[in-house]
Structures are given as C-alpha cells and as structure tokens.
Amino acid sequence: MNLALMASGRGSNAAAILDAIDRHELDARPVALITNRENVGALDVAESHNVPGHAVPRRAFPSRTAQQQRMLELLQASGADFVALAGFDAILRPFIVAAYPNRILNIHPSLLPAFAGGMAPVPQTNALHAGVKITGCTVHVVTEELDAGPIVAQAAVPVRPNDTVDSLSDRILEQEHRLYPLALRWFADGSARVENGHVYIDSEESQALWPHPAP
C-alpha cells in the first residue's frame, strides 16, 4: 500500500499510523502527508518520519475546488493508491473521492451513525449533552455523503459520570490510535472487502474494539 495521509492539526493520528508502519504492524509505504493549513503539527510529524509534507492553504488558491485540485495532483504525483484522513477538517470534493473509490478512510470521534458531522470536539460535546453511556470512534470508508460511508471498525468508550469534553476526548483519542492502524492493515493485507455498502473482514479479528485496561 502506497499510503498518503491528509491532516489539518497536530497530527496525532498520523503519528499513530506512521509509528505502526515503523513497528512493522502496518505494511504500508507512506508517500505523502498533505495539509490544508500551514505551520501545523502534522507537518512536523511528517518530517520526523521522513515523509514528504505538503501544505496547501486555502488562501493560496482562488477557490476550494482549485485548492483540492492541487491536493489531488499531489496525491497522484506521490503514487498514492490509498488515502487516510487523519484529522482532516475539510470535506473532500467528489473528484477526489471518485479518484480513490473505496480507498479513502476517515476516523470520526463517535459511534456512527450517532453524532455524525462536525469535527472534534463537537461529536464529544453532543455525546455528553445526549447523556449516552457509551460513545467511541469509527473508521469508515469516505463517500460523497458526509460521515455516512461503510463502517470499517469501531471502538467503544464508556462515558463516565464526571467526564468533561476534554477527558472524554482524550480517552476517545487513545482508542483512535489503536483502531486506525488496525483498520488500515486490513486494507493493506487484502483482508477487507467492500460489498453492497458494507465492509467485511476476512479475519478472525473483531471489527469492534473495547478499551483496555477496563475504564
């Protein structure tokens, strides 16, 4: 797998993925990290792993379409055949999704379809306001419909009575760092297949993870 990463912030999920590659837990070759912002931590993560980093800020282009057209050019020039959105806060234009059908994954900080839409900490805040007892994170295939693509895997996070948005977000993020490399590994080794709007894994591993140690 020639893997490109796209991020907008500090890049903690990108770091978790790249660390998994370094530990030989994910058989992938990182070919690029693309951000839609300048001077973000994700670029430092890319540099520390010797991955080419590219900042494609909105202000440098006449439109968001032109900005994302440049991103697509960078993806294709890198030789990427798979893309992981790792805290990327822009909605991909249909032409990028079409260029990588069933080959773009995203991670969202809720158990989709609950609390879809919005970047962190919006889903975590919504979970607390709703009074749910379990939330978590979801890796899904990216489609043109926001946060509605086929679900690859989910990790559950119990909500504690004294949770704040920050404490809940931190525990969800821990599970994101477990879940995302695993989901990518299934695609890298050919275990994952997308059929009729669902993702099936030809493996004994579960597509649902629970936190450890116990909360």
Account of the 3D structure:
The chain is an alpha/beta fold and 215 residues long. It has helices at residues 12-22, 41-48, 64-78, 94-99, 122-130, 165-188; strands at 2-7, 29-35, 53-55, 82-85, 104-108, 134-141, 151-158, 192-195, 198-201, 208-209. Helix 1 (12-22) packs parallel to helix 6 (165-188). The model has no long low-confidence stretch (mean pLDDT 96).
What sort of overall outline do the alpha carbons produce when their principal axes are compared?
globular
Largest sheet: 8 strands, mixed
- Any idea what the radius of gyration is? 17 Å
Q: Find the count of extended strands (DSSP E, 2+ residues).
A: 10
Query: How many helical stretches?
Result: 6
Rounded mean pLDDT is 96
Distance between the termini: 35 Å
Helical amount: 25-40%
Which range does the strand content fall in?
A: 15-25%
Summing up helix and strand content along with how strands pair, one would put the structural category as alpha/beta
Q: What is the assembly state of the chains in this entry? A: single chain
What pattern of helices and strands is seen along the backbone?
Answer: EHEHEHEHEHEEHEEE
Q: Identify the strand order in the major beta sheet.
A: 3-2-1-4-5-6-7-10
Low-confidence regions: none
